[in-house]
Structure to design on (284 residues):
């Protein structure tokens, strides 16, 4: 890390470091990253099977059979992290003394009126018509990303299961449903690819104040100055409640930082390359 300007936005500015994500949340996000790239790199080539780069990707996985194995293995990871997250969330809600906080308030991932006002304010800020909105623990963009995973697993994962086990589903759905599932599975996956590798990458990693990386989701912690820029309302709330000391964290260990940097740059390079190839295939 450079003393003057660390590579990652989450390490820049004055300390101390503050915890933002738990170990389980970081592991689940890593599972999302690994499974998503595995699914994309083995599924998208089938969508553009007439393109040379698609044929190369299939050959890289050992042919159609190898790509199928990788694709289904990553699908199992997807269902695994979703089941783990939902079951953990249910358990936390059941044990919590303040169940309302999971559905309403600053720590909730449920969209609220403030998110709508923040989105409007953000667009005004983009054109210089107002100040930048102030976010609490989660911004409206983070909530959108969160719920998009539920949508993706339900629509893409559900249709994928139908195509994976057609005999089981054929006993209670008509045949035309499989044609719909094929179209939905491919088109929704393509939509997810385009969003993740453009909007999500830009907001999370490539916008000027975060460029070239933001590793907070991988290391789980960020400097106080980062929190003042990205989540000032959360910082103010923790200070007012006297809970800030509970969130103080040690700097990320070097092995974790190096691994997160390597993963981050690899993901960006692969994602932007694949998005460019898809765009080229659609326009040509």
């Amino acid at each position: 890390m450079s003393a003057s300007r660390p590579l990652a936005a989450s390490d820049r500015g004055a300390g101390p470091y503050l915890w933002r994500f738990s170990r389980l949340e970081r592991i689940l996000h890593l599972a999302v990253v690994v499974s998503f790239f595995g699914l994309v790199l083995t599924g998208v080539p089938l969508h553009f099977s007439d393109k040379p780069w698609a044929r190369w990707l299939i050959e890289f996985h050992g042919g159609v059979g190898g790509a199928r194995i990788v694709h289904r293995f990553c699908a199992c990871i997807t269902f695994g992290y979703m089941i783990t997250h939902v079951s953990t969330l249910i358990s936390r809600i059941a044990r919590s003394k303040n169940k309302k906080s999971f559905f309403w308030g600053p720590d909730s991932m449920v969209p609220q009126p403030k998110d709508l006002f923040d989105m409007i304010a953000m667009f005004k800020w983009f054109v210089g018509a107002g100040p930048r909105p102030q976010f609490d623990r989660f911004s409206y963009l983070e909530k959108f990303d969160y719920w998009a995973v539920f949508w993706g697993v339900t629509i893409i994962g559900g249709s994928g299961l139908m195509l994976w086990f057609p005999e089981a589903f054929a006993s209670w759905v008509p045949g035309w449903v499989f044609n719909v599932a094929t179209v939905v599975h491919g088109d929704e996956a393509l939509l997810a690819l385009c969003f993740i590798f453009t909007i999500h990458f830009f907001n999370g990693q490539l916008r000027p104040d975060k460029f070239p990386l933001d590793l907070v989701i991988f290391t789980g912690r960020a400097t106080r100055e980062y929190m003042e820029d990205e989540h000032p309302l959360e910082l103010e709330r923790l200070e007012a409640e006297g809970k800030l000391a509970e969130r103080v964290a040690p700097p990320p260990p070097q092995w974790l930082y190096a691994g997160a940097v390597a993963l981050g740059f690899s993901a960006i390079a692969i994602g932007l390359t694949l998005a460019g190839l898809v765009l080229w295939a659609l326009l040509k």
Observations:
- Strands lie at 17-19, 221-223, 248-249.
- The chain has a mean pLDDT of 92.
